[in-house]
Design brief:
The structure holds two protein chains of two kinds. By secondary structure, chain A is of the alpha+beta class. Chain A contains seven helices and six strands. In chain A, strands 1-2-3-6-5-4 form a six-stranded antiparallel β-sheet, sandwiched between helices. Chain B has two domains: about 70 residues, Rna Polymerase Sigma Factor, Chain: A, CATH 1.10.1740.10; about 80 residues, Arc Repressor Mutant, subunit A. In chain B, helix 7 packs across helix 8. The termini of chain B are far apart. The chains are: A alpha+beta, B mainly alpha.
Chain lengths: ~260, ~170
């Protein structure tokens, strides 16, 4: 084994091999026994690494950081801030605006009363568990009343859009959500499975806050067989729930792929 | 675990991580605040309190990547190995905090991330590969080049700066 190769392997430390014997590691160690230069360099690098590990954590913390974070937490928890006192001369205008808003609200309410009542049929909080349980399940063909529309970007590369499956049936057995089976390769080339669940936004009791699949807003679920990452978002009239095997990095990889396919 | 406990236990290490990743006090402050606000919102997702630090680091890392994508300016440096430091230089290196941060800031993000995870979070190569979702060989190669650059930069800063200036022209 050459010096450079041995130094590179030794530089990576033996955690690469999970503490077990490895042919390359053994060869690098053999090289070390016969090469004084490499033995000395490896020892010097270890000293330097220890200094680096110590120096990298040596960062001065702003004195008020903890208080800022605690204040942020409290502010985001409290329902609202105390309102500013209203100047006397603005009150007339505010009353006029309030009256206008009240008239508008009464008209809107009367109009609403004559429209057919629509109640959301799906609890958004139930979808992740349902989707996770459905990744491995044999799902029926979708028979719902809405035409499922795929989100932006290149999703057709990872799903078969002609064969949506059905989820969450109503009292008449019609599906309230459509699910597309996702299959793609992660960076290691492993086959990753998942589901893209589509439902009309008006069927949900709570809408996703995001307007794009944001992998920093991932939820995690585990089944007996696997771990899953889920992200939800709303695009136009539809809400989307993407569930994939693995963690947020798998989801990020999927998102990068659909982004690049759409380009 | 509630948000106050989470802040109490992890605010300093999360700020340090954000600072080493972003290289600026203002960005580190923003990233730390945004990470704890996200954590507060998503606290129910933290099922194992022992994983809180790595969970927070992941939130910081995602926010940082989003931030740099939007800025889209990135240092391009030559990481070619031109001069290996001598063993005595490595042994006697007195790593200055500011010089270290300049050196980290000089590393392109794909090298800086594994380097910070390795030295700061003390993750193994396998753990880094899993977290960055890249093959182990890629982590080995990026860490090897990143560490090599830091060794040269922190033992012979003037020489490396001259190399970079020459590369830039």
């Amino acid at each position: 084994m050459k010096c450079n190769e041995a130094l590179n392997i030794l530089d990576a430390t033996n955690d690469l091999f999970d503490g077990q014997s490895d042919e390359r590691w053994d060869q690098a160690m053999d090289h070390l026994e016969t090469c004084d230069n490499c033995a000395e360099m490896t020892a010097a690098r270890q000293v330097f690494d220890e200094q680096m590990a110590q120096a990298i954590t040596n960062v001065a913390i702003p004195a008020d950081l903890k208080q800022i974070l605690l204040d942020n937490a409290e502010a985001s928890h409290s329902p609202s801030h105390q309102p500013e006192p209203i100047p006397q001369k603005s009150r007339g205008r505010i009353w006029a605006a309030l009256v206008a808003v009240a008239v508008f609200a009464i008209v809107a309410l009367c109009t609403w009363a004559f429209l057919p009542e629509h109640r959301p049929g799906i609890a958004a909080a139930d979808i992740p568990q349902t989707a996770v349980a459905s990744v491995d399940a044999e799902l029926p063909q979708y028979n719902g009343q809405f035409q499922p529309v795929l989100p932006h970007l290149g999703w057709t590369q990872v799903i078969d859009e002609t064969e949506p499956k059905g989820l969450l049936a109503d009292d008449e057995g019609r599906h309230l959500a459509a699910a597309f089976v996702i299959q793609f390769a992660d960076r290691q080339g492993n086959n990753v499975r998942g589901l893209l669940v589509v439902t009309p936004a008006r069927e949900l009791d709570t809408l996703p806050k995001e307007s794009i699949p944001d992998s920093s807003q991932v939820q995690y679920f585990s089944s007996e067989a696997n771990d899953y990452a889920i992200v939800s978002w709303q695009e136009g009239e539809f809400a989307y729930f993407c569930v994939v095997e693995g963690g947020s990095f798998t989801l990020e990889r999927l998102h990068q792929q659909v982004e690049s396919w759409s380009a | 675990m509630d948000i106050v406990e989470l802040i109490d236990e992890h605010y300093s290490s999360i700020y340090r991580f954000a600072y080493r990743l972003s290289g600026s006090e203002a960005d580190a402050l923003d990233l730390t605040q945004s990470a704890f606000l996200t954590a507060q919102e998503k606290l129910h997702q933290l099922r194992i309190p022992a994983h809180a630090r790595s969970w927070l680091c992941t939130i910081v890392r995602n926010a940082f990547l989003k931030q740099i994508r939007s800025r889209s300016s990135e240092n391009v440096l030559s990481l070619e190995n031109t001069s290996e430091p001598k063993t005595e230089d490595l042994r006697n290196a007195n790593i200055d905090e500011e010089e270290l941060q300049n050196a980290l800031a000089g590393l392109p993000v794909e090298y800086r991330e594994p380097v910070v995870l390795y030295y700061f979070n003390e993750l193994s190569y396998r753990e880094i590969a899993a977290q960055l979702e890249v093959p182990l060989g890629t982590v080995m190669s990026r860490l090897s080049r990143g560490k090599d650059y830091l060794r040269r930069r922190l033992t012979h800063p003037a020489a490396v700066e001259a190399e970079n200036a020459a590369t830039a022209h």
